[in-house]
Design goal:
The chain has three helices and four strands, in the order αββββαα. By secondary structure, it is α+β, with helices and mostly antiparallel strands. The chain has two domains: 40 residues; 61 residues, no CATH class.
């Protein structure tokens, strides 16, 4: 009985190791994506690529200079995006660049 459990464990070990490695790779990839987004958001820009959190659709938009846009409708899935947390607009939350008023701070 002990030998059969050991054999099963040995057979499953490569699968378990692969699963752990893939989770680590996924975590590192998410960290890199966040860092790229943070780096690009520190550059001043009058355009911004906004990404829908629901369907992943991306579109480059002109940043409004006179106001903060608090609603944005995704062209692909028609869901309404809104700011999250302390962000003042949808570009600060879902975009590659913050809005012009935040870029100046």
């Amino acid at each position: 009985m002990k030998n059969s459990k050991l054999i099963i464990l040995l057979l499953l070990l490569p699968f378990l190791m692969f699963q752990c490695d893939s989770q680590q790779i996924s975590k590192e990839s998410n960290k890199e994506d966040s860092q790229i987004k943070m780096e690009s958001s520190s550059e001043k820009s009058n355009t911004c690529e906004i990404q829908c959190p629901y369907c992943g659709f991306k579109k480059t938009e002109e940043l409004p200079t006179e106001y903060c846009q608090i609603k944005y409708e995704c062209e692909n899935c028609n869901k309404t995006l809104t700011p999250e947390g302390d962000d003042c607009c949808v570009f600060c939350t879902h975009g590659t660049h913050k809005c012009p008023s935040k870029q100046e701070e």
